[in-house]
Amino acid sequence: MDLNPPTGSEISIRRGDQGPLIIIPAKGSPARYFGGLFLLFWLGGWAFGFKSVLTKLLSGNGNAFEVFWLGGWTVGGVLAAYTAFRIFRPGVPETLLLKRASIDYDAGIPPLELNTYQKRRNFWSSLFVKRLRAELGRQELISLRLRETEEGNRLTVDIGAKRVELAARASEVEREWLGRLLADRYALPQIMLGTVGKT
Length: 199
What we know:
The protein is of the alpha+beta class. About 40% of the residues lie in helices and about 20% in strands. The strands form 2 sheets. The protein has a 5-stranded antiparallel β-sheet with strand order 1-2-3-4-5. A 4-stranded mixed β-sheet has the order 8-7-6-9, with helices on one face. β1 and β2 form a beta hairpin. α1 runs antiparallel to α2 (about 65-90).
């Protein structure tokens, strides 16, 4: 069993009492910070607009449209502030703790990429990402598959009725290495699949 990641990989392995811990960094494009800076400047203008209309309404000089506008403006500002927070927040790495008979899996939190809508993932689900933590026992590990798709390979495991992609931010070579490592360590049947459509 080869515990050494491929040459040039940013994946690291820590050895501990419970077993090796595979750490897949949550790397993101530095270009996302440009979007974050734009949102910070936009929020400065947002604050002036908010204050101006709120002051007018509190003085009793506002109208129904300005009440409606202020509600939409507030929602937009909250979403922009949360998006900026997600852009500048450091990512949490994905980890797999390889125990004797199971894996403690933590999906981590990837950095927010503003161009995510162009990829497979839905922008809104990546904005409000939920951190998945699960124990992958024998039943889940048997479902481990390396699937070839039009966009490259995907290493997946089924957790109940949900198909989870492991090492989504790793390279194809790193996913192949991880798939072989897990198959060898847990004596899994053949995990390689031929080319399939998007799944």
